[in-house]
Amino acid sequence: MIDQRLQMLRMVAHHGTVTAAAEALRYTPSAVSQQLKQLSRELGVVLLEPEGRQVRLTSAARSLLRHADTLFAEWERARAELARHVDEPSGALTMCGFSTAAAALLPPAVAGLRDRFPRVRVETIEAEPSECYELVFAGRADLAVVLLTPTTPSLSDPRFDQRRLFDEPLDLLVHPEHRLAEHATVSLAETAEEAWIVARPGTTYHQLTMASCASAGFTPNVAHYANEWETGTALVAHGFGVALVSRLARWSGQHSVVRIPLRGDPIPARRILAVTRAGAGTSPTLDHALGMIGATAEELIGAMADQRG
Amino acid sequence: MIDQRLQMLRMVAHHGTVTAAAEALRYTPSAVSQQLKQLSRELGVVLLEPEGRQVRLTSAARSLLRHADTLFAEWERARAELARHVDEPSGALTMCGFSTAAAALLPPAVAGLRDRFPRVRVETIEAEPSECYELVFAGRADLAVVLLTPTTPSLSDPRFDQRRLFDEPLDLLVHPEHRLAEHATVSLAETAEEAWIVARPGTTYHQLTMASCASAGFTPNVAHYANEWETGTALVAHGFGVALVSRLARWSGQHSVVRIPLRGDPIPARRILAVTRAGAGTSPTLDHALGMIGATAEELIGAMADQRG
DNA sequence: GAAAACCATGTAGGAACGCTGAATGATTGA
DNA sequence: TCAATCATTCAGCGTTCCTACATGGTTTTC
Asked: Where does the HTH lysR-type domain lie (chains A, B) (predicted)?
């Protein structure tokens, strides 16, 4: 509804190269290049300038993008309002989320949506938070459940509406005979000298562990890298170190480990966000999905409180 | 930039029929009908319903139109801001206005624009106020100088930005030997018994005369209909009646008539407006055009004050 | 009350638009 | 220096979208 070429320009701005933008939009670089050239001609302003083997956006392009964000958000609002005019919503709704969220929050939402809107095809995609933003931005997903990290887009990014769902506390995972194993709670600072098991660099979860330790005043002494909960738990169970796990994380239970809630002010936690395209939030199906996810989140918070007490 | 089909829908809403909308957009009715049908399919809502031999907009369509107005206005703002990023504006700027305005206000603006922006092709169209709104709405003109009348779109119409330029006082035109000819000013109520020369019904000027007399408490006794100032003046000069002329109206001067300023509270006047598409006002060329017209208007107001004194 | 005018919509054909794929040139990193 | 990455151009082709004409229904007119 809004000229495709504006979305192309947004993608180029976001990815930095024509090629990556084309890939995100499932076009060839050739198509994006031609379209943006023509857009530039039509508007009478230069939008892209060569910079090395890439392109750089001109100030005119950046000015245009600000308005483009407004336009796309307004169109999302229009779509959402139109969706209220149909008796029986149909079409597709795609949700995405990172592993824990995808496991804990999305399935109840899918069930609720199928129940309430039987004609809507509901799909989910498990993806890293950064990819989740991509999916929502590109329109291939309508809703994402992600973590707040320093690398995610700003909460005021005009392309997205982001709302806090809940804060998931973090626990320390130790061997049953570890010196801290009997503690009811533990502060992260007490673990500064421990051997650590963390996820591999580049993953969201690695960032989280490093950031948590950094805010507790130390850099973890990393002994092992493990991306899966299962692997990390096994390493802890063998006494190779301690690890950080989020409260909702689940694994097989084959390994004997102790989970100790962290204390602190604030309590170390990761913030869970629901992300939609700006303006899209008021469509009935998305509204319902957000409601279901929020309710599930509240339930989980309740369960977490029980555990803690 | 905004999907053409939204403009088609806006035109159907404005004109009431697919055929008239198509004509305004220089399409065939078939094209408009097909496009709107496809739009309806894509959005999953019914937009048009048959009503007699015409169509009626559904509530979904009206909802969509509200957002469409916002979208188009935002795009105009984007275009205007982009125009600030080019060193030497080019392209075309079309202004339109009703006869007096076209004669008095537009030529200085054209001259000023040509001087300031030599590469911009400036064009003018003389048209009735209602047609002026059409031209601006359809994008075939960028600026219109019109009269405020009861039939023009509301000042808060989201499709337009309308600003007051000035109020043009009205004068009574009488034969040199008329009983009122020696008066310095005259109130419209004193002319209730006169024979009147008015423009033909359906014209803006007819409306103006009838409305002015109505607000003075009488219905004019119409003796002759004349659309051109020249003809009306000739009739007055032959003693066939009195007529209303606006202060800026000019004619050949062959006919011997007396022009008497009207008095009253407020002084009978017609309000001159500058109309642009919503959001378009900040482009450099349009900004300059508005400035020129405003300046010319102020000069004329000054000249009018001199005349009156 | 029948005919004419008006209006929306459907179908078929043609023009224009927009995409793909391969080729080119330029830059960066190994 | 060679390979990889990136933007851009050109030719070709499929899709989209408009026009022209025809149809069916409604309103107005004589």
From this structure: 1-58
